[in-house]
Fold each of these.
Amino acid sequence: MISAVASRRHVIADDLRAQISTGHIKAGDRLPSEAQLAARYTVSTPTLRNALALLQAEGLVEKVHGKGNFVRHPLRRITYIGGGLTRANAALHVTIRTTKLRAHGHLATLLRVPAGSPLTEFLCLSHDGKSPHSLTRVYIPRDLASADVPGESTGPEELATLLAKPSPPLAEVQERVCARLPTPMEATTLRISSTLAVLEVTRVATDNAGHIVEAAFLILPGDRADAVFTTHPTTKERTAEG
Amino acid sequence: MISAVASRRHVIADDLRAQISTGHIKAGDRLPSEAQLAARYTVSTPTLRNALALLQAEGLVEKVHGKGNFVRHPLRRITYIGGGLTRANAALHVTIRTTKLRAHGHLATLLRVPAGSPLTEFLCLSHDGKSPHSLTRVYIPRDLASADVPGESTGPEELATLLAKPSPPLAEVQERVCARLPTPMEATTLRISSTLAVLEVTRVATDNAGHIVEAAFLILPGDRADAVFTTHPTTKERTAEG
DNA sequence: GAGTGGTCTAGACCACGAG
DNA sequence: TCGTGGTCTAGACCACTCA
């Protein structure tokens, strides 16, 4: 079969993975330096780094330049529930940065507004404890959100109230989801390996008048989040977790 | 900025990417050998291979052991539309392998049947032209599909008709989607790099009697497929929540 | 057998973080 | 400054494909 030959990096990765899962190496611990590990496994440094790269892609190990390789705390797996607008997840702490800008190119077509229209951008970074969890950019036309757009530093409550009152009720929420590797900016912001797949959700919400109420881009690291979409949750109201 | 330093592999990858997009290297072409490319860019072989790895992760280049690196034909981007059952995509050619098996562990809990229950597995590999496009495994309880479960080699039409008549109408379709890297088996089956992110859709369909009609696992390579989920405008009992 | 990619080695030098 | 990871080199040897 194909997997008959287990290359050295896989053997090393399997060994380290086993040590982590059995608790011989605990979450938050620093691994021995790459030179030490290379000596222990009697491999060269590039080979050992390849082994660590496998664990990074699984989200099991986080490399910090100049400090070492660390076993990641197993993050709660958060389930994004599709079908609505941005909602706060009680398990996460969210920091929001608000920016005023003007629509351009791709964003303008997505929002169906002319280029140059005033927009408000909410850049939301949610944290699970100390480590970043997911990244969301929300764009809403400024003329819809009218005058009550807040200033520079905004708490999540204000965004929640802002988004909780769509003038006309929502008619449609379309969510397009795709899997890809993170951009370098996303990788550093979320402190993930550039080889860890992320889920990108592009959400466009339309009101009954046919206007785009918001466009949102969610980046959910594949090791700690997934998304659920359900048809007709007629009786059961959406609850926090699945 | 962060991207101020462009490592050599990125420079090389950018150059090759430009040559591909401008048509200097056409789809289906074989790139020069890695040794030749390394000489042209005056880098060592591992560095050049790192550059090619970037293009692989984007799905732009396919490596074939013993033959060379090939520019992939740009595959049609297929959009999976959520909310229904398995449906044939007219643009793709689908080959199906049918297997009878019995529920075990994870699959049994997902289908809410006791372990050992008879199931039918449909392993569907869809092709876009010559190259594989996506992979689907569908599991249906054999007592629901009763006697009309077909034999070994089944055409897509039979599967379509089989799945088109759910005895009771569907009550709910839940689709859980996550991003990850492919398993080695998936990578070889779909002929993708093991560093190209895939979208995994786990779909569970329930009928009005509360029985699981089918469970399906879709593997959609991130470079050629995404998924769309839309709230039905008809049922707008959903109130926006904060 | 010739040519290709797959893996690995044993170093080198640079960039970052903390004392 | 020192130890860390980040990047790269210039080979070596093996596995696969095709003539």
Amino acid sequence: MSDRKDQLIDRAIDYLLKNGLAGLSLRPLAAGIGTSARLLVFHFGSKEGLIEEVLGEVQERLRISLATVASAKALVAGEAPMKRCWRWASDKRNLPYLRLLYEAHFIAVRVPGTYERYLNRSSLNWIEFIASRLPESISSAAMATLCGAVFDGLIMELLSTGDLRRTTRALDDFITLLRREHEARTRVARIEERTYKKRKA
Amino acid sequence: MSDRKDQLIDRAIDYLLKNGLAGLSLRPLAAGIGTSARLLVFHFGSKEGLIEEVLGEVQERLRISLATVASAKALVAGEAPMKRCWRWASDKRNLPYLRLLYEAHFIAVRVPGTYERYLNRSSLNWIEFIASRLPESISSAAMATLCGAVFDGLIMELLSTGDLRRTTRALDDFITLLRREHEARTRVARIEERTYKKRKA
DNA sequence: TCACTCATGTAACGATCGTTACATGGAACA
DNA sequence: TGTTCCATGTAACGATCGTTACATGAGTGA
């Protein structure tokens, strides 16, 4: 963990954020960050080792960054955690990191045994982050899956088109749908509760 | 458009459905489908030409396949078009084609000028398909974006985990949300209409 | 001063890449 | 029968890939 190596990781991350992971090769990467392929292999052992360390650092940075928005209140009351999470994810400082992780995730799914152990958890973990903050009335595995899919889909759309306004409005619409469903279910629950009390009395 | 070329396209599609597009190289492809790299270049001009024709054929097959479910009724009444579309997309005969197109879409977004003119429209066009069938009450650009994102996200989740049951339930939940919102808005609309009539009278 | 470790440069290895040159077989048509 | 065009095989080209061998300079503690 020398200073030189950390510096190389920093620069390699910048390079990967720009150029992606799919067609990565050592010599252009080395030339782009002011070193040589020889030194990359010297410090990281191999190309795969470099990618491992870079992806690990990327996940760590995102994890730390996400922690700053983790102090959200419950859904429905105040700003929705989903909205907060969306503002974080669509921030232009975080979005390139997400793009890189999505790319790695895609490659890992396509070619099993590639990077998958560095992505298995905590990479796209804002889904758990959101799901754990759903109110009980609309909390289920399917609903958590839906919330995660909305995020994945909207971020992909944002990455493809760059249309932040439209994707943000789509998320707002989804939050509205969720809120209305929550209100409908709790109203039914209150009615049932009242009915139950009446019978009891 | 010789028979031999069509046969090569068929086999190349099968190969790409299995092995993906990212790390494609001519010699393994040729060996996998019983020909030679020499002949692939002879028939398609270049590797890029081959990918163009293969992706074009893939889109054409999906377009035809999607047309078979295009005779859906309006949302809310009967089976939702989204559900119908989901059953089509998650069919194990169609899913590999979608995976290939998603991969191409990802590469095209990452490396501008790559395949993008072969994907610009009609590739992921079930989004328009769905959006055009939303009832007026919940029809907007944002809502269409949301529906598309739900599809993209759920299909990615299905491709990643293979969990058809959970992703299908998530879609059902979303349809429920949409339906409830539709009912709420039309109810409000009816009340407003009644109020308006009363005043008029 | 000397040995030793770390960092770095030069150059090459074998493999694979997309592509091409050249030759040939075989069918169709004059 | 001869010619012409399509299909195919063999072999190679130059480029690039990840990786490695070897040498050397720089710093550092004994």
